[in-house]
Amino acid sequence: MAAPLGVATPSPTPFQPRPLSPGFAVSLQFVTPAATLALASPIPSPLPSATPTSEAPLEATPTPEAIADLPTPTPFAPVTPTPGLIWVSIVPDTPTPAFLPPPLTSAGAGERWIDVDLSEQRLYAYEGDTLVNSFVVSTGTWQYPTVKGTFKIYVKLRDADMSGPDYYLPSVPYVMYFYKGYGLHGTYWHNNFGVPMSHGCVNLRVSDAAWLFNWASVGTVVRVHD
Hints:
Elements: H1 34-40, E1 112-117, E2 122-127, E3 130-136, E4 149-152, E5 155-164, E6 167-179, E7 182-186, E8 202-204, H2 206-215, E9 221-225
């Protein structure tokens, strides 16, 4: 609205800063307007969504290949025994060895000696090169293997107590020691013959050990091998 006539309009007085009193300080703070912040930090645009494309799968489907015709197997012809060859029938309790071990140099003609085959878990009783008897046995386990070599029986005991760190066996029958604490003897505490079971001795059935005890003597050679 215009000022009334006859009234003088005062001229605006320029702003004069007020002097500060001693002991006062001025702290200036610069505030960024919200609009400026919005321009400084623009809102990111949303990422475009991936549009599936009809591309080939990662793993290609294998193409079947032609398989060559396999040769037709030829049946084995039956084996006909040849005269003069030795055919061995394997019987668990009374097997016949496929070959005789070489005679011992210390054994004379007809001399009795004992052969212990660790791989077969069998004991053979010979007179010279003639097989007299054979028994299934149990020798030492891998932890307590039976000693190998050629020895002689140095003592025979009708029965004896045996003990070790983890066992005690009273009145073990028909004991024949051939090297230190290694011996041939009857066994009443297990019936798992044909499998290594002992702490190093050669375990026999009690009846087999009785036969061997009466057949062998002190000085009879005992050969132990794989």
